[in-house]
Amino acid sequence: MGPPGAGWQGISADSDEEDEDVPPAEEPGDPQDVCSQRRNNLGFWLLGLCNNFAYVVMLSAAHDILSHQKVPAGNGTKPTPPSANDSRYDCNAVSTGAVLLADILPTLLIKFSAPFCIHLFPYGLRVAICVITAWSSFILVAFSRTTAQSMTGVVLASISSGLGEITFLALTSFFNSSVVSAWSSGTGGAGLIGALSYLGLTQAGLSPQHTLLVMTVIPVIMQASYCFLLAPPPQAPRCGWGPSIQKSLRSSSVTHQPLLGGNNTPQNTPETQTPQLTLQEKGQVVKGILKYLIPLAVVYFAEYFINQGLFELLYFRKAPFSHSQQYRWYQMLYQAGVFISRSSAACIRIRQIWLLAALQCLNMVFLVIAVNYMFLPSIYLVFVLIIYEGLLGGASYVNTFHSVSAESQPEHREFAMGVACVADTLGISLSGAIAIPVHDYFCRLP
């Protein structure tokens, strides 16, 4: 479960700024250049994967986190006995929506505050913070003894993901624009690989605690990819603390490329400066893309309400899986659907995002009714519905950003993409807040 945060880092240079220190963009064709480009594509793919990995794993492990990582004997290969409470549902004391809020609110705060202060910190320091917070999140959750400690670990994972999203998307401005596609593919792969690896390792016999400890290698791969795999051009920051603030600002202003560009030519050379948008212009840009942002927020609200408000309650006692295993399968199948549809933009383009929002809301209403009346005959029917849910969510995501990019004027595109990335985060945050009382309501039912 991760959304893009482009648009905070572009800083235009003054019209009289010289660019003699910045070498011209290299033309492809030289074998060394081709090799460097492949390294960069792989590097950004791994950075995208590692950046969203902890976020996805924390959502997949939400049920185990709230159970304090306790699983039945035999690692839950047999169905868990009925709950000791009086509810018809096998409920945790706290909704998994609480894990969602802990996993998304820090990211939302970072996205809102980044425009004002992110440029003060060099890239090397930002990457180091991402690595340390991601590694600490796995350790803290693995060894936690209370829900509060577990939630603190989830918050650290959110900080790492939110800061990393802004940092690495900004870093793409120093490279050939093809690395943006590699980054996006990596973040999509994180959803599937993260959920599948957590499910696979626990199914293989590892406890949730040992599974989280194994995953501490992921932040190490992130640091290694940044320092050793990338082949940055001369004007890009190097591994370490990066260039001075002034040089970093100047370099980013001169060489910043659009997220969805298709060539190697730097975007903001002195001849093609992007003007600073006025408040009125920003308002007009937001107004023009609301037709995409509102449906996107609705889609993400509905699907994350399902994921963190209803998944735990969709428990089949006669299924050949324990409650924890059922929850992990739900998360993995959802991420599989998202990955498939996010990769479908080259084949299918959908401009009617509102239609996807309507279908996702119908999906949510149906599953709420199913939880209330418990009429679904088989868990395998739920598996199909969850894959369908993921397909709707992934399609709305990729088609929204394609539409926003295509319809935005070049001088507005960076700001529009930055605004668009907040819509899904707002929808997710609202769903987490509502999922908690809904969970409590169902768990009080006799």
UniProtKB/TrEMBL annotation:
Acidic residues: bias regions: 14-30
Any GO CC annotation of this UniProt entry: lysosomal membrane
Subcellular location: Late endosome; Lysosome membrane
Membrane topology (UniProt): Multi-pass membrane protein
Transmembrane spans: 42-62, 123-143, 155-175, 181-200, 212-231, 292-316, 353-373, 379-398
Main localization (coarse): other
Region forming the signal peptide: none
Database matches in Pfam families: CLN3
Region (Disordered): 1-34
Gene Ontology biological process: amino acid transport; endocytosis; establishment of localization in cell; lysosome organization; membrane organization; negative regulation of apoptotic process; regulation of intracellular pH; regulation of protein metabolic process
PANTHER family: BATTENIN
Family, per entry: Belongs to the battenin family.
Official protein name in the record: Battenin
The organism of origin for this protein: Anolis carolinensis (Green anole)
Biological classification of the source: Eukaryota, Metazoa, Chordata, Craniata, Vertebrata
